[in-house]
Specification:
With 97 residues, the protein is α+β, with helices and mostly antiparallel strands. It contains two helices and three strands, in the order E-H-E-E-H. It has helices at 18-28, 60-80; strands at 7-14, 40-47, 50-57. The chain has a three-stranded antiparallel beta sheet. The radius of gyration is 18 Å and the shape is elongated. The N and C termini lie far apart (61 Å). The mean pLDDT is 88.
């Protein structure tokens, strides 16, 4: 039996480009349903440059825990999808050997 999820919050993050929002949302997608439990759950959606994580919980403690978890997941998704600087092969500092 699932407890009614009467508390809700939405994390909404706007990116400078639709491509970045798409990458972040795609990175978050596999986590949906994986960390849900009887007291809380989340969904991820994207609208152009904006990614939204909607967290619903049965109580405020579960809502806080879900918000903390999803905030960290968004941060990790942003790091792993961040554009990498191109290496300059003419830079002597980039020479490893």
């Amino acid at each position: 039996m699932t407890t009614p999820r009467t508390h809700e919050t939405v994390l909404s993050v706007r990116y400078s480009a639709e491509r970045r929002a798409r990458l972040v949302a795609a990175a978050l997608g596999p986590e949906v349903g994986e960390i849900d439990d009887a007291r809380s759950g989340a969904t991820v959606s994207r609208d152009d440059e904006t990614v939204r994580v909607r967290i619903a919980a049965a109580d405020l403690v579960a809502l806080r825990a879900g918000t903390n978890s999803w905030s960290r997941l968004v941060e990790v998704a942003e790091r792993v999808t961040a554009p990498r600087p191109r290496s300059d092969s003419s830079d002597p500092a980039s020479d490893h050997g």
